[in-house]
Structures are given as C-alpha cells and as structure tokens.
Design a protein that fits this description.
Elements: H1 6-27, E1 37-44, H2 69-72, E2 78-86, E3 93-95, E4 102-104, E5 109-114, E6 117-121, E7 126-128, E8 134-136, E9 141-144, E10 147-148, E11 157-158, E12 163-166, E13 169-173, E14 176-178, E15 184-188, E16 191-194, E17 202-203, E18 209-211, E19 213-215, H3 221-255
C-alpha cells in the first residue's frame, strides 16, 4: 500500500513540470524567434532485487525468484521526465521594414558579446546603441568578422549573405553559426549558451539573411492551451488518487488491531 501511493505521485510531479513548460511557452508567444518546448516522459524501472537478501526463496523451495515478484511489493514502475525537447521549426516571418531587424531563414544563430562571454541567438530584433553599435534589445553587441559592428547614423543595408554595407562600403560580415541543438542551453534574454565541443560550431558561409524582417515565436497558442487543460486534469486525477491512498492507509492504520467488545 505504501509503495502504491508513489505511482500517482510520480505522475503528478511529471504533470507539474508539463504545466511549467506550457506556461513558459504561452508567456513567450510574442517573443521574437522563441522556440516552444515539449516534455518527454520516461518509465522509471523498478529495482526488485535492491532490498531483499539472497537467496530468496531458500534453496530447497522449488519456486523461482521471478514467481515471487508480485508478492514483494517493490516491483512498481513510476513515470519521470526524460527531457525537455525544443521545437526547432521555423517561426513565421514578420515584415517590419526596420533596417535593424534581421531574419535568419533556416538554420543558424547570431553571435553576441556579453559580460559572460559569447552567447547565441536567433532574435534579430536589433537596435543601434548610442555609440552606433549594432546590438540586441537588451544591449549585447552583435558580432561580425571584425568584432563589434560599428555603424554611423544613417541608412545601411544587409544582404542575404550577412554582409553589411553603408555608403557603398563593406563595413563587416555577420557571424552566423549552425549549432547542435542538444548542446544549447537557455541563458535568459533570448540567448543560448553553447556547451558542446569547439568542432561542433560550424560557421555558415552562406547564411540566408533577410533585412527588415524578424522571426516570430513558433508557439501554437491553441495547441498549448489544449495541452494545458489536459495536463491540469491529469494532475487533478493523480492528486485524487494520492488522497484516496492516504485515506485508505489512515483507515487501515486505525482499524487494524482495533479491539471490539
């Protein structure tokens, strides 16, 4: 009975994580280039041999150990969260006609300089800082082949290869990398940390860049709202099961051994 309560409890904990992920998706439905996430579950295998001495049963008992498995009460399986999977589908292309807005079509990440080192982003909603540095909205400088990209006030253009021109002169070329998704970790402000090997970073020599456009969030509001309702109802069902087991254990504890006159 005591072990049985952990089966619905594990399900409730997993659904809590699902609700957290969905809430984060919905909160970023308007965030530029945001990639939604999904929860993948896994079966947590039992450890039937862990708490029992060997040999069991005794050598002269003609029943195999596997035959007694249902009697031990340690063979229950539980559900757990295997991983949080990021949806890498391209978000919608949104036309802004703003010269500082850039869209990466297909694979690739911009490189930005932060106080903690290089970070990567697909967020192309950029701005010019007071000293003419092409930066993210939160102030991190975008990097090109020459380092920080400095532009004078006035018009500039970016072609589909990431080359930046101003007054007919080539100023710099954007750094755009293709990175393995498994090695990327969210770092806040729509930035990612790359934690893989150096050889995993592949410079894109021919990125597909569009100026005057940004990538929208790929979060599907209806799909996530439906998933939230399903996860919430599942959580409630697991919660009721835990409560029922708790009442059953309380009743058995109070009733067993009760002396009636």
């Amino acid at each position: 009975m005591l072990n049985a309560i952990y089966t619905p409890l594990s399900g409730a904990i997993a659904q809590e994580r699902v609700l957290e992920v969905i809430a984060n998706n919905l909160a970023n439905i308007s965030t530029t280039a945001f990639k939604g996430e999904n929860v993948a579950f896994t079966l947590l295998e039992p450890e039937p041999y862990k708490n029992y001495k060997n040999p069991l049963p005794p050598a002269n008992y003609k029943v195999s150990f596997e035959d007694l498995m249902p009697l031990k009460g340690n063979e229950l399986s539980y559900v757990g969260v295997a991983e949080i999977q990021r949806d890498q589908t391209q978000g919608p292309a949104i036309k802004t006609n703003n010269q500082t807005d850039l869209l990466i079509e297909g694979a690739g990440y911009f490189v930005v300089n932060t106080t903690e080192g290089e970070r990567f982003t697909r967020d192309g909603a950029l701005k010019l800082s007071g000293d003419g540095v092409l930066s993210t909205q939160s102030g991190q400088a975008l990097l090109g082949e020459k380092g920080t990209i400095n532009l004078r006030s006035g018009a500039f253009s970016v072609n589909n290869r990431g080359e930046i021109y101003q007054d007919g002169q080539l100023v710099d070329r954007l750094l755009v990398y293709n990175l393995p998704e498994a090695a990327l970790e969210r770092a806040g402000n729509n930035l990612f940390i790359y934690g893989g090997p150096a050889e995993g970073k592949q410079r894109l020599e021919h990125p597909a860049i569009s100026q005057g456009m940004i990538e929208g969030s790929n979060v599907n509001a209806m799909k996530n709202l439906t998933a939230m309702i399903f996860a919430h109802r599942s959580y409630e069902a697991y919660q009721k099961a835990v409560s029922n087991f708790d009442r059953m254990m309380e009743k058995s504890s109070n009733s067993i051994g009760e002396v009636r006159v």
